[in-house]
Amino acid sequence: MKLKEMLLDSFWYSVSDWKKLIILGILLVLLDSEGGFSGSWALNGLNVIIFIVILILGVLEAGYIFRVLEESVEGSKKLPKFNRFHEMTVHGLKELVIVTVYFAIPLFLFIMFLWGSNTSADITMAGFLIFIVLMGIIYILFPAVMLNMAHNHGTIRSGLDFRAIIRKIRYLGFRDLVVVYTGMFMILGIVKLVLTDNLSTLPLMGDLISQLLIAPFVLLFTTRMLGLMDKE
Fold first, then answer.
1. How many Cβ atoms from other residues are within 10 Å of residue 4's Cβ?
2. Which of 65, 126, 164, 195 has the most CB atoms at less than 10 Å from its CB?
3. Which of 69, 71, 52, 68 shows the shortest CA–CA distance to 20?
4. How much is the average pLDDT of 2-30?
5. How far apart (Å, rounded) are the C-alpha atoms in residues 105 and 108?
6. How many CB atoms lie within 10 A of CB 45?
7. Which value, in Å, is the radius of gyration of the alpha carbons in the chain?
8. What is the largest CA-CA distance in the chain?
9. To which H or E segment does residue 102 belong?
């Protein structure tokens, strides 16, 4: 599939079901909410409940987005339904584990680097640069990680199968994967920023459109685009 066809497909796919788009937007709004966290945790047990609810919503959101990716690589042309919540939860938890494993590695190495060396400014800067490089490598690897999981029913093992992940990168083309995936995020990020700034003149309506429509659209679009790059 050519790039133009992938872009058009991803656009129409993302807006094909406004009900599902808005439901995803509501999830994102609730996840961004910080109003419930105030006061002392010891004195306000409501904070604990709010945290648990937000964690559950985050897992469901991750599970749904994984389903979008999984069904996209299988050739589906419709947004998946918000059902089979047990399956969504399991996939969301698995994705959370994989994200934690991958992005905790450079953070752990950075902390160990600083802990095992003198805390001079030069060494600290060198450690920080190494941390940035490792994060960049993982950022490049991660789309292939998610695609490999999508082809293997979301198993944690497939998310850590480095040989299969490297083969996936070679199959997709390292340059194409980096250019398309990074460029896509940059362009959509700029579009979202411009639209959000323009809508800020409409305090209530602008926030509503941005959070309920633009944010979920960007998420669906990028996920669909990634799935089409490796469609079966």
1. 8
2. 65
3. 68
4. 89
5. 5
6. 9
7. 20
8. 57
9. helix 85-115
Whole-model pTM over 0.85: no
- Tokens representing 207 are 């926030």
Between 102 and 187, where is the model more confident?
102
What is the rounded CA–CA span in Å between residue 165 and residue 93? Answer: 20
DSSP 118-180: ---HHHHHHHHHHHHHHHHHHHHHHHHHHHHHHTTTT-HHHHT-HHHHHHHHHHH-HHHHHHH
Structure tokens at 43: 């004195």
| pLDDT tens digits, one per residue of 122-144 | 666 777 787 788 887 887 788 89
**Residue 159, both tokens:** 């998310």
Mean pLDDT over residues 61-72, rounded? 93
Q: Exposed e or buried b for every residue in 154-187, given b needs 16+ CB within 10 A?
A: beeebbbbeebbeebbeebeeeebeebbeebeee
Q: What is the pLDDT of residue 35?
A: 47
Q: Which of 232, 223, 173 is nearest to 64 (CA)?
A: 223
CA dist 83 and 89 (Å) reads: 11
Amino acid at 146: M
Average pLDDT for the chain: 81
C-alpha to C-alpha distance for 198 and 110, rounded to whole angstroms: 40
Please report which confidence band the pLDDT of residue 196 belongs to, taking 50, 70 and 90 as the band edges: low
Inter-residue contact 29 to 212 (CB < 8 Å): yes
